[in-house]
Amino acid sequence: MTDLTPENPAVRLYAQEKWLPVKGYEESYEISSHGNVRALARTVDFYREGKNIGRRLPQRNIRKGVHLGYFWVFLWKNGKKKNHRIHKMVAEHFLIKDDPTKMVAHFDGNRKNNRVENLRWATAKENAQDMARHKTSTWGEKSTHAKLKGSDIKQIRELLKHKSQTDIAKKFSISQSTVSKIKRKETWEHLT
């Protein structure tokens, strides 16, 4: 665990918000060490009666959206928008990535805390260990793809004592192979 006290050089370095141009959008946007994104003042094409009269846009902070607990922003280039996760942008601009297979991890487990001192590059295994430690993992019914709840699993395991896997699968609108994996504790193994 990294030291997040004021004595830590990384914390002192970024205590004051620093801004860098966003790679690929250098003329239009900046990202900060605190996880903020702003659009730079610029003139954009604006047509009136078929004539490009241009429109001056002032510098402004970009409003963030939230998806699966992560902040993100849309950035525009050549009339097309692209979704960018803030934590990844901060890490790519302010942290050195020593291994291309690593992903961004949050020290405190808070997906909305995108200050550079709270982020690091980690392996998938390290990130999974962090998520387990912070209780932010998306296993079981917390998963966005889960069709079942913990109570369903307990009920399925009880029904397995006297019903066929096919009948149970029909009752819960899942496949027989899913019931089989629940029985063998290949899935939902954290529930006994």
**What summary fits the major beta sheet?**
4 strands, antiparallel
- Taking the alpha carbons of the first and last residues, their distance comes to 32 Å
The shape, in one word, is: elongated
Strand composition percent? 15-25%
Helix/strand order, N-terminal first: HEEEEEEEEEEEHEEHHHH
Total number of beta strands: 13
Low-confidence stretches: none
Describe the protein in words:
The structure is a single chain. This protein is an alpha+beta fold and 192 residues long. It folds into two domains: 9-137, Homing Intron 3 (I-Ppo) Encoded Endonuclease, Chain A, CATH 3.90.75; 141-183. 27% of the residues lie in helices and 24% in strands. The protein has helices at residues 9-13, 86-94, 124-134, 150-159, 165-172, 176-183; strands at residues 19-21, 29-32, 37-39, 42-44, 47-48, 51-52, 55-57, 60-61, 65-67, 70-77, 80-85, 103-106, 119-122. The strands form five sheets. Strands 1-2-3-8 form a four-stranded antiparallel beta sheet, covered by helices on one side. A three-stranded antiparallel beta sheet has the order 9-10-11. The protein has a two-stranded antiparallel ribbon with strand order 4-7. Strand 2 and strand 3 form a beta hairpin. Helix 5 (165-172) crosses helix 6 (176-183).
